[in-house]
Amino acid sequence: MADILKEILKLLPDGKISDTAFEAANIVLYTKDRDYFLDNQGTIRAVVEQMKKRIEVRADAALTIDPEKAEILIRETIPAEAGVSDIIFDSKRSRVIIHAEKPGLAIGKMGSVLQEIKAKTFWVPIIKRTPPIRSQLIENIRAVLYQNSDERRRFLDRVGHRIYDGWMREKKNEWIRISYLGSGREVGRSCLFLQTSESRILMDCGINVSSEKDAFPFFEAPEFDLNQVDAVIITHAHFDHTGMIPYLIKMGYKGPIYMTAPTRDVAALILLDYVKMMKNEGKEPLYTSEEIKNMVKQTICLDWGEVTDITPDVRLTFYNSGHILGSSMAHMHIGNGLHNMMYTGDMKFNRTRLLDGCITRFPRLETVLIESTYGGKDCFLAPMRDSDEHLRTIIKTTFERGGKLLIPALASGRAQEIMILIETLVRTGQLDKVPVYIDGMLWDIAAIHTAYPEFLNVAIRKQIFHKDNNPFLSEIFHRIGSAKERQKVIEETGSCIILATSGMLEGGPIMEYLRQLGDNPHNAMVFTCYQAEGTLGQRIKAGLREVVFPVGPKKEVVELKLEVHRALEISAHADRRELFNFVNRCSPRPKKVIVNHGESSRCIDLASGIHKQFKIETAAPRNLDTIRLR
């Protein structure tokens, strides 16, 4: 038994605890005493306050009533209006997972319904939201976790032992350093390696989609050894931050991967889509769906603001980064007050149609690692209302000449922002009802948005809670689910909007629309996201007007006659003004700012600008550079 468990048991009444277990940093105590399970007389709270750890009491399996009887009691206890669907029993951990359309009703006022379920069944109820839009992916992810419950229990226990074994050991010669395995003066393949005297932690692990030569992180760096990695932290689901995670698992990584629940779901979808796309193109993917399934099993989901130990000397807290659904800034408290650093991942300072802006207040903060996608001297995005009006004008003029409007979009974040914008314009009468066809994985990701309204801003959250007002369920949206439906939109449908992946025209269903609709001057295409150097999107934006498309074994050259709009920016990244506002508002003010995830000139510009304006030490490291923080 780990030392920390022995210390906890010393503080509790004798004979009350029958077994102990770790669930990562959480400590679970099992009891065979019915009264102690239902009311421990404050003894657990006293231990939590003394140990500063999350501790939970559950009934021993011998106490829990038969699942069939328990399900009947649960359905009788929860109001019918809650819309309970599935009830799944996790017998290895004495928990019951209840899916409900209205979780608040299933929980009850002050948790009263949950307490009643515990008292009647001795199972610990966990309430999950049933999405208004059915998502096969969410159902599959939950099934993977439930069907592998015993394996998951053993995994979480191993993680806990790594965190707590030797927790009382005296720390000597403490130091902290960060190596850039990717995203140093470039956009893409985000991958930072944090090392301390106790820990080895990978922060993000992505692929550079715009470069075949420099696509992958520098895993060959001498300081990196996958066998020694204790934890992986993922800030958000975009492929340039997650694309290599299943590859790590393929290479033998068996440790924890920390992210938010919506990040897990969206990342799984994006990674599965990558595997499918590679196979469709006759290429061998880096990994298979089995590695993605294992990624799900190794993921530990955290809510924003939830503090958890991830290694013996690193405590992690996620904060809203404002970028996409579930995206987070990773704040790490290292050592016993030794240093506090925060990695922003991708971030947005201003509030958007979907999300609140990023958090700026933290308990402690010495070093910030900040993105610079739009950090250059000339990177100032148009106000949201200007972008709204610009898109409205593009839609109207395209429809007036009988054309179709193509909108290539990043699957997560940008596409949903555009959906909300178009729905708002139609609902408020600023635009006539227009058919909007959603292709690729965009519909599934929209469904995931409806499953996690707590990660959205208040306005959208309220709309989702009321089915009649849910913007994602608007009648203007139509899902494209097959090649036959896609062809029908191309050939038979009149003026319409087609929203499809990929945002940079690097594969995906948008390519088929562009191939067949690109030579018609009545049609139009509008870019809405950053176009990385070397991508087809960037080349078309720069003036390319002949594109070669593979069609089976042959190639087809298409002259692009459709109208190309370059200026619309609905960016989920902070521009230079926002980045400066973020640093200015940071409380406490960091002593050091390290700039990454931007083209070389933009990284240098932002680092120089922050140093001049705020008199803060800055750096803009290259890939393979290592910076010592302490």
Structure commentary:
The protein is α/β, with parallel strands linked by helices and 630 residues long. It has four domains: 3-59, 2-Layer Sandwich (GMP Synthetase, Chain A, domain 3); 67-130, 2-Layer Sandwich (GMP Synthetase, Chain A, domain 3), CATH 3.30.300; 175-378 and 573-628, 4-Layer Sandwich (Metallo-beta-lactamase, Chain A); 384-565, 3-Layer(aba) Sandwich (Rossmann fold), CATH 3.40.50. Helices cover 34% and strands 21% of the residues. The chain contains 21 helices and 28 strands. Strands 12-11-10-9-8-7-28 form a seven-stranded mixed sheet. Strands 13-14-15-16-17-26-27 form a seven-stranded mixed sheet. Strand 8 and strand 9 (200-203) form a beta hairpin. The protein starts with a helix and ends with a strand. The relative contact order is 0.11. The mean pLDDT is 92.
Features:
Metallo-beta-lactamase, Chain A, 630 residues, 21 helices, alpha/beta, GMP Synthetase, Chain A, domain 3, 4 domains, single chain, 34% helix, 21% strand, seven-stranded mixed sheet
CATH class designation of the largest domain: Alpha Beta
Shape: globular
Total tally of structural domains: 4
Strand order of the largest sheet: 12-11-10-9-8-7-28
Q: Summarize this, please?
A:
The chain is of the alpha/beta class and 630 residues long. It is built from 21 helices and 28 strands.
